[in-house]
Design goal:
CATH topology: Growth Hormone, Chain: A
Number of helices: 16
Strand content: under 5%
CATH architecture: Up-down Bundle
Radius of gyration: 19 Å
CATH superfamily: MFS general substrate transporter like domains
Structural class: mainly alpha
Shape: globular
Number of strands: 0
CATH class: Mainly Alpha
Largest sheet: none
Length: 379
């Protein structure tokens, strides 16, 4: 193992993780209140916006072909440049269709970065190291989220939404441009196949990604919207929840990574999916503002368990398949995720409980599937 080269990639991945988390946290913290208070979107329109946000994830396969003309680490940095541009424009184009366009721009950068981030991690680090690196990235991302949360909380007294989106977006773009000057790559890493890879032996990974994408969209599209619309959470209350989430996850993410190494992916993912069944059911039926806030925090915590899907794939994969398979996995993750927010938005208009009961059903399916995981513990 080439320790110095791994250290360079570790530093690079940590920097990009912080930049991405800061940008997405700022955008996501502001979005729902901006959409409701300024743009005046309905539940159906929010579902459409969130559906559009997942289209770039569905097109993650294109990453394979972009890698024919640009190196993987540079494409990761450029993806965050694009993400920053989308965030900057969000407050300026303050209409429903403006939100659709800026969300699409931001999302192309976000999803392509996520695909490349996972690919580089699994290529450069061993089956023991990879979960720990993923956990460390999530911990640092949580710290970045806290910083941005404090920034949003303070700026909300001084600026309108347009200025806040602009400040956050320009900061992301500038930091990502700086990362373009850094080269953490190594000639010793196994060369990746530059074509689409679909293999029968990866079937379980594909199905877990499919269900994960659908289930996650119920949370992303409707959990905060539920807090804002039904329970009347203000932007400052939402920011406080983000603070609590990230303080907890700063400490828990490394522990979750170590739990994956100690107990294995099957046990960790089983705990996640069992807990999420309960969380989604409570979302649907509680009338308590305090209870729904606790469910939101638990949902956020258990999302971090999903890193076990990547570590499971690393253990069963041909090392040459990692980059194309991460792109395929992201596309599969978003096949259903593109339409779930749209369908959920329509269902919301009938009864807001329906999307959350759907999330519980998806979690139950995932719980059954992970029982098929069979991997050796890393040595």
């Amino acid at each position: 193992m080439h320790t110095d080269e791994n250290k360079r990639m570790f530093f690079f991945l940590m920097a990009l993780a912080v930049i991405c988390a800061a940008g997405f946290q700022g955008w996501h913290t502001l979005l729902n209140n901006f959409a409701v208070e300024v743009v005046g979107v309905t539940g159906r329109q929010m579902g459409m916006i969130q559906g559009v946000r997942e289209i770039p994830g569905f097109l993650s396969l294109l990453v394979i072909y972009l890698l024919l003309i640009i190196r993987e680490h540079r494409l990761a940095a450029l993806s965050l440049v694009l993400m920053g541009a989308g965030i900057s424009l969000t407050g300026i184009l303050s209409s429903y269709y403006g939100l659709v366009v800026t969300t699409l721009i931001m999302s192309f950068g976000f999803h392509y970065y996520q695909t490349l981030n996972q690919s580089l991690t699994l290529q450069y680090f061993s089956t023991i190291q990879a979960p720990l690196v993923l956990g460390r990235m999530r911990a640092l991302a949580a710290a970045a989220n806290l910083t941005v949360g404090a920034l949003v909380f303070g700026l909300s007294y001084l600026m309108d939404y347009a200025w806040m989106f602009c400040v956050i977006g320009l900061a992301v773009t500038a930091a990502a441009l700086w990362c373009l000057l850094y080269d953490p790559s190594s000639k010793h890493v196994v060369p990746q196949r530059k074509r689409m890879i679909l293999r029968a032996k990866y079937w379980l990974y594909y199905f877990l990604q499919l269900l994960s994408g659908a289930r996650r969209q119920v949370f992303v599209a409707f959990a905060v919207f539920l807090l804002v619309q039904k329970f009347k959470f203000t932007i400052r209350e939402i920011t406080v929840l983000f603070f609590l989430n990230n303080i907890i996850n700063y400490f828990l993410s490394p522990l979750i990574a170590r739990a994956i190494n100690r107990y294995g992916e099957r046990k960790v993912l089983s705990l996640e999916y069992f807990a999420l069944i309960i969380v989604f059911i409570v979302y649907a039926f509680t009338d308590s503002k305090a209870v729904v806030a606790v469910m939101y925090i638990l949902d956020f915590i258990f999302f971090n368990f999903s890193m076990a899907i990547q570590s499971f794939f690393q253990k069963i994969a041909d090392p040459r398949d990692i980059a194309p398979s991460m792109a395929v996995g992201f596309t599969i993750n978003h096949i259903v995720a593109v339409i779930v927010p749209v369908i959920g938005g329509v269902a919301w208009m009938v009864d807001y409980k329906i999307p959350f009961m759907g999330g519980a059903a998806l979690s139950a399916c995932s719980l059954m599937l992970v029982q098929f995981i069979r991997t050796e513990k890393p040595v």
